[in-house]
Structures
1.
Amino acid sequence: MRTVDKGSIHPRSQRRMMQVFDGAALGPPPIWLMRQAGRYLPEYREVRAKAGSFLNLCYNPAMAAEVTLQPIRRYGFDAAILFSDILVVPDALGQNVRFVEGEGPRLDPIRDAAGLANLSLRKATTKFDTVAETVQRLRQGLPGETALIGFCGAPWTVATYMVGGQGSSDQAAARGLAYRDPTLFQSLMDLLVDASVDYLGRQARAGADLLQIFDSWAGSLPDDEFETWVVAPTRRIVAQMKAQFPDLPIIGFPRGSGPLAFNYVQETGVDAVGCDTAMPLELIRSSLSGKTVVQGNLDPLLLVAGGDRMRRRIDTLLATLAANPYIFNLGHGIVPETPPEHVAELVRHVRSYGRA
Ligand code: 1CP
């Protein structure tokens, strides 16, 4: 008997998620949600407890693949996103990174040239390959119609954690270092560009169908610094990825960039833009929709609330954006308080669009 590779039943181009990158406006649009794997799911909490530390989970290919698949089994999203974290990159480069229960990530901050000199891309390859092994397992284990998203943090956002040593509301440590010692800060960004290209390249070779670059703190910079620390490094990553993988779509998520998002798309060369919760729908419609693939931007807190209010906003998003290439998503990640049945209702409602 012939064995059938699940992937071969649905060649990559037949995955609905991929079709929007060929210019298709689909009714209903493809849907996935940022942080679709995570603490709001009881089955995630179970695996997370077994793993011990959060980084153990990220570096255990069997467990990381399992938690990636959990939301696909429940909701049948059009795309799975590799379970990992943007802070795997500084950890692999040699910075001390730990996740403190109830508090979030803590890193030994990089403040000077000596701190930076301790990091190297050479050290990182073993851990990067462990993550690539998760990607490989997923490509085998996912349904043929489900696209697989690889990702990394953008250099600016990753640097805010590396310099600050933890999350912050204003990214003051990194912004301060970038003004005080732009040469040192540029060296850190250069390392992160190289590391991101290496890391994403391994994910692509292992079977990722597309990539997302998370720039969660893009919105904390004035426009000239945005150009230097958000646009320029992202453009270098996109150019190097396109040179090696010309058909691999890249989604940029410049959270908080507001009216700068259009220039971001033009200048970085990303194929799609993730719109955050605060991006005005009228701005998305007039400056992005039809010019690039748009992804977003339902408020994650409206998903917690659920009900009619959520369904009405979904209808507005679809009516405004789905006539052009569009991927349904939230404007930021699912929060742990989200009732899993609200996610089911969201998917059901989006999938009813265009099928009436
Ligand atoms: O114990 C736990 O379960 C910790 C919670 C958690 C989870 C589920 C963290 C810690 N990271 C993740 C997974 C994760 N992180 C994914 C997996 C794939 C998916 O989306 O399902 C992804 C893509 C990320 C990306 C990530 N990590 C970003 C960018 C997106 C965003 O949310 O803005 C950022 C900023 C991080 C850092 C991070 N990791 C974890 C936390 C709590 C944070 C934020 C810390 C802070 O700013 O205070």
2.
Amino acid sequence: MTALDQPARLDPVVGRPLDRVDGPDKVTGAARYPAEFGFDRLAHAVVVQSTVAAGRIGGIDTRAAEAEPGVLAVITHANAPVLQAAPSSVMGPAPPAPLQDREVRHHGQHLAVVVAETFEQATAAAALVRVDYQVEAPLLRLDDPRARTVAHPEVPDLDRGAVEAGLAAADMLVEATYTTPTEHHNPMALFATTAVWDGDALTVYDTTQWPVNVRTVLAATFGLPEARVRVLAPFVGGAFGAGLRAWPHVVLAALAARQVDRPVRLVLSRAQMFTSVGYRPATVQRVRLGASGDGTLTAISHQVTEPTAIGDDHRENPVRATPVLYACPNVSTRFRQVRLNLPTPTWMRGPGEAQGVFALESALDELAAKLRIDPLELRLRNLPERHPQSGKEWASNALRACYERGAARFGWSARSPEPGSMRDGRDLVGWGMASAYYPYVHRPAEASARITADGRVVVASSTTDIGTGTGTVMSQIAADALGLPVDRVRFELGDTRLPPAPQQGGSGTTAAVGTAVHAACLALLRAFVDLVDDDPASPLRGARHAGVTAAAGRLSRSDDPGQGEPYGEILRRHGRSELSAHGHGAVRQDASHLAPGIFGAKFAEVRVDPDLGVVRVQRLVAAVDGGRIVNQKTAESQVIGGTVGGIGMALLEESLTDPGSGRIVNATYADYLVPVNADVLPVEVLFVGDPDPMNPIGAKGVAEIAIVGVAPAVANAVFHATGRRLRSLPITLDQLL
Ligand code: MOS
């Protein structure tokens, strides 16, 4: 139901646990992913990657590869055209264009691309490309004295109050170093790009979370107007942040297609995924906490160092939650990056916060143990009633409810405080918890809505759906705004010809695109009012001032709900087959006095085998304040997925780089461990909190908060089970023996 002068009432469809609208397409195989678009004369491209981490290309011998059957082209720095540098986006610079010089900056850098009739021919020929390197000693370690340490200009040093004085005044101190490893996103689907030129017009099917950005990068790289580039991403088989940049292989696919004048498909191999689409950078984190005897925090100092690339850039902020989660007067944060001969890191689920909150929440647990205060009680004593940095009132903040309801569901009050004091048979039992925060971000977006005389609506935006359920929740929002059953709404997405949308990232899509969809639907209602306002045949005549209500497929007068008519009736009488409208989901202008934020509390139970050191996460409760939950089922599914990622971060995931060569040695699904079903026992998700006032949907987001806090909750549970404080992820059984 909707009145024109106020936000839509989002019922009865919003909030319901609807099955995802694209589910049948996915399970029947009708869904087509970027590697599945076939074309006449489709050729296949395979990248050749550097086998050293630093130096220069002395020469590349492509003759043997070119002589192979089916080979159409071998493109290297020696014969590649000059490509233009792409502009920076709101998320930072674009990756440098490939094949533009002889420099080798990391192991796995693309040095050539082989194009052939078949994928197998291209793969075989790629193995025959010979590269002579002038090898240099690579910079691979954070503590290498030759490496350059930089402060990221967009993550300034933060000093609130006087941290040293706060530490000096404390009754109890915790001072410790925590580390987290390199991790890879490992989406199920290999990233792929299919590129098709038609004259100087380029169409690309790409694995991306941001088609508009891929269009910008490709247009700039090839010197084309953006209108000549179309990027489609109708389905994406997982991304988790890896799809937020237009990586060099995307450019290579388009370059290869232009060079051979045929459609070209480029699919990265699983091993190539480890060096081509980013990763979560490892961190070294120094945390100092001070507190008075009653647990009141007097100081927090948090310093994080992580690697970044040479010749490219990555911005995340592992210390962003630190000044926000607790009402501490004295806080100091530092973030430094060290330029190494590694592939460029990128955003990975809860980027920054996932690592930073591990250290912060582990340190809080250490403080609680030293003070002999219950870890949950320690958090409650330092709850931030207002935003601790800005002093602003929270737009919405149900952190207390996350703690209390999560604890109640978990049964936290039955926890016996002494480490090692709880057992189940031989197994040591541990209960741990942690807080979680992620910033709410609202970005401008646009959407369109079109209704036809049969009462069916198509809503559209160029956003993607990387598996989150975006298509489903947008259909729900449109259905309620227009007063239609959800099965009358179809949401089109993943195509730059549709209205522009921001990146599907940072937990912001439901809020941003949802607001645009909502605006488009309201604009559509206004267009109907324009049609009937002076229509003597309409019961809605003159209803502009009274307002209209959309419900049950009809528009009716708000001042006399019995007076109304169906959309189709209005269209037919006015000789129209359809009516359409456009909506801008602008950022709310009058909300600068409010501090938004997404919150959570995670509770974990582990069982540790005292002889073998095997850790099993027995159960997990995630209490999440993500604002209004548009779809209970898809949101819960996202939180479960992020929780599984958090279990992986805590116990399994770690990409290992050979310290001599810079090669990632476990770049396979066999050697890079992720949780499987047997590792994931019940995960309970509680959504708490109210609709947020920052956007008309009331949604904040759940994607990142899902993983933040899981690893420290598990690590804290391991401490509680064993008395062993493990500060280096992943926690493996050798550390517990
Ligand atoms: Mo998420 S790391 O913003 O895809």
